Amino acid sequence: MATIKLKLDTRRAKSDGTYPVTFVIALGPSATTISTGVSIRADHWCGEPNKAVLAKCPNARQINAELDDLLFTYSAKLRALETSGKINRMSLRDVKNHILAREVVEQEQTFIEYFQEVIGRKDRSGTIAVYRHTLSKIEQFAAKMKCAADDWRCKDITAEWIRQFESFLKSQGLRTNGIGLHLRNLRAVVNSAIDDELITTYPFRKFKIKKEDTMKRSLPVEDLRVLKDYTCELHQEQYRDMFMLSFYLMGINAIDLFNLTEINNGRIEYRRSKTGHLFSIKIEPEAKAIIDKYRGVKHLLSPADHYTNHKNYTHRMNNTLQQIGPMQRHGQGGKKHRNPLFPKLSSNWARHTWATLAAEIDIPDDTIALALGHSSGHRVTSIYIRRNQKKVDDANRAVINYLNQY
C-alpha cells in the first residue's frame, strides 16, 4: 500500500534559514520525496493533515490551500493506481515519475518560469546577475523569432533551438566567449530540468560550446618596473598604488581588497567572493608600505571607507590606469594631451601579471595554481593548506624579488 504525507525537511537549511516542505511517498519499506516548491521556517511548521503551516507564517492561508490541493491531487492519483492494480507492477521511482509527468502537463510550466526558478536557487549576487543577463537574451531571442517567450516549454529546448539561439547571439555582435557564457548558463538550466524530470532528452549531447583563447592581459616585468616607479600625476598615484598592492597580494581582486578589515599576525585572510576559496596571504614589506599609506578606519584601506560600491572605484581605477604616461598641456588651462604607457591596463592585469612572472622564474604550476586558488581536482583540506602555505609565501616573495631586480 502506498501512502503520501507532508514533511518539513530539516536536514539542511536554505541560505535564508528556511526549510523545504516535501511530500513523502512510501511504497512498502521504501520512500521517496517530491518537492512542493514551498520553504518555511521551522517554527512556522504545523504538520497537521489539513493545515501544514501555522497561521503566523506569511501567506499561511494561501500556502495551506496550495499544499492541500496538491495533496488531494497526488492522493487521488495513488488511489487510482492502487484501484487499477498497476501499482503492484511499479517501482517507487515509476510511481514518482507517473505523478510528476502528469503534473508537469497539468501545470504547463514554461521554460522562462523554470529559468526564473533556477535563478531563485542561486545565492551569489554575481551569479544571479549573469543568469538574468542570459534570461534577457532569451527574451530578446523570442522577440526576434516573433513569438512570446512564455510559449516555450522545457521540452521545446532542442538542439535546433540552441543552434538558432547561438545564431541570434552572433547577430548581436557577441564574440565567441560571450556567446559561450550564455550557452553554458543555458546548459546548466537544461541539466537542472533533466534532474527535475522536466526533460527526457539532452539537447546539448551533440552541441559543442566554442571557446577561444583570450588576449594576454599581463605586463612584462620591465613594464611593471616602469609602472611601479613612474612619477604619476597626483590623482593617478593612488590607483597605481592599488594596482601594485593587488600584485603584491598575488592578484587579489577589487571586491576582496575592498572587504578587507584587518591584518592578523602579518597576514590577511579572506574567502574569495567569486569562488569561496580560502586565502591566507603573508603581507610582504612592499605591500605593508602601501597599506600603511592608505590605512582606513572601517576597512583596511581608506578607499573602501569612501566608496560604497567597489565597482565604481574599479571603473575609475581602470580609466585612470589607462591614462598614466606623459602628459602635455597646450596653453594655460588648455586641453591635456596624453601619451598613455599602457592604454589597455586594468585592475585584473595584476593577477595575470603575477602568474606570468611566477611562471617565468620557474615556480611550479601546482604552486601557482594554489596561490591563485585554482581547483586541483580534489578537496583541499585545512591540513593541505597549512602544508603548502610556505610554498605560496616563498613563491610570492620570489616574484616580488624578481620585480625588484633592476
Widest beta sheet: strand line-up: 1-2-3
Please work out how many helical segments DSSP would assign.
15
Evaluate the radius of gyration. 28 Å
Number of strands: 9
Note poorly predicted spans: 376-385
Please state roughly what percent of the residues sit in beta strands, choosing from under 5%, 5-15%, 15-25%, 25-35%, 35-45% or over 45%: 5-15%
- The rounded distance between the terminal residues' Cα atoms is 82 Å
Q: Could you explain how this protein is built, in words?
A:
The chain is an alpha+beta fold. It is 50% helix and 12% strand. The protein is built from 15 helices and nine strands. The strands form four sheets. The chain has a three-stranded antiparallel β-sheet with strand order 1-2-3, with helices on one face. It has a two-stranded antiparallel ribbon with strand order 4-5. Strand 8 and strand 9 (336-338) form a beta hairpin. The protein is elongated, with a radius of gyration of 28 Å.
